[in-house]
User: Fold this.
Amino acid sequence: MPATFLPVYSYQAVDANRAATRGTLIADTPRDARDQLRRRGLVPRRLEAAGAVEPATGVGAGAAAAVGGAGAGPGRRSEAADLFRELSTLLGVGVGVLEALDLVIAQVPARHQRWATQLMGVRDRVSAGSALGDALAAARWKTVLGGSRALFDEATVAMVAVGEDAGALADVSTQVADHLEQRAALKNRLAGALTYPAVVAVFGAGVCVFLMTWVVPGILDALAESGQPLPPLTLAVKAVSDFLLNWGLVVLLGLALAAVAAGIALGRPAGRARFDALVLRLPGIGPAVRRQAVVRLAFVLEALLDSGVRFERALGIGRRAVRNVVLQDALARCEAAVREGRDLGPALAETDAFPATVARVFALGQTSGRLGELLGRLGRSYDRQLRSRVDRLTTLIEPTLIILLAAVVGVIAFATLLPILEIGDLN
Assistant:
C-alpha cells in the first residue's frame, strides 16, 4: 500500500512583540498551517510549501526498513555524519535540540533542498513533543518506484534513543558520526576499487564492438570480393564480425532478459541465499566478503555497545547490517543461542561461517566485559587486511585488463591487415 505523505511548509512570522521568527511545520493545507501559527500566537507573513514527509510511526516501525543506511536517499551518509557532528558540537556547548536542528538546517546548501526538507520534518516532530530518536526513525524518503525507505539506519536510531535516555546525546552524536563515516569509508573504498576496472572493461568492450561492426566488415568484404583467399585468422575474425552484425541485437536482448531474470531470482529469498552461498565459495572473493561482513558487524556492534545499547538488541541490529544472507542466518542462530543463555563465542564457532579468530574475540570480549573495545580492534584489523587485499586485487586487475584489451585489439588489427600484406607480397 503506498505511503501517505504530509505536506511540510516553511514560514516567516512575527509574535506579539513584533519579533520575527521562522521555521517549518506539518499541515494538511496552507490554511491549516496558518491556523497552527495563529494558535501559537504568531502572525504569518510568508508561507511556502517545502516538501513532504511520512507520518511518524515510532521507532520500531520506522527502523524496520532502515538497514539500507542513512543517506540512502536524498541525504548521503556524509551529510548524515556532518549532521551529527554539528549536533554534537552544538549540544555540547548547551544549545537545545530544537535550536541545534534549526542551525543545522540553515547551513544546508540550496542544492540539497530535499535533505533540508527531511530535517525540517525531523525538527517539527521534535517540536511537537516526539523524542529525537522517534523523529529520526519516522524520517523517510520516496523511492523511484513510489514507495519509501527509512532515511536513517537502525543503528543510528538506536544509538540516538539510548543517548537521549541517558542524557548523553552530545557524546552519542559524536559516536553516531564516527559510525556513519566508518561505514561510508568502507563502502567508498570497495566502490572506488571497482570503478576503474569497470570503466576499462566497458570501454574495451565498446571499442571491440565498434571495430567488429563498423571497421572490420568494410575492409574484409572488399578483400573477399577481390577473390583473394583469406588467412584462417582473418576468416575467424570475419565470422565473429558477421555474427555480431546478424545476431548482435538478439544477443543484447538475451543478455537483458538474463539480467532481468537474475534480478528476479535474487529478489527471492531462495535465489539470494544460493547466490550468497556461491559467492562465499569463490576463491579470493569469498574470504574478502567474510572480512567485509566482519568489519561491518564489528563497527556496528562497537558503536552500539559503546553507546549503551543492550547486547541482545545490538546483535540483532548488527545482524541486519550484514548483507550476505548466509552470514545473516549464521548470526540469527547465534542470536537465538544467546537468548537461550549460551555464550556467543562457542555458538559463533559452531556455525562455521566466520573465521575462528572472530569467534575467539567474541568469546574473550564477552567474558572480560570489553566486547566493544575488542570488536573495535578486530574491525580495524580486518579493515586493514581488506584494504590490503583490495589494493592488491586492483593492482593486478588494472594491468591485466589493459593487456587483454590491447591483445584483442591487436588481433583484430593484425587479422585485418594480414591479407593486405599477403597481397603486397604476391605483387
Observations:
- The longest strand covers residues 43-53.
- Residues 53-75 have pLDDT under 50 and may be disordered.
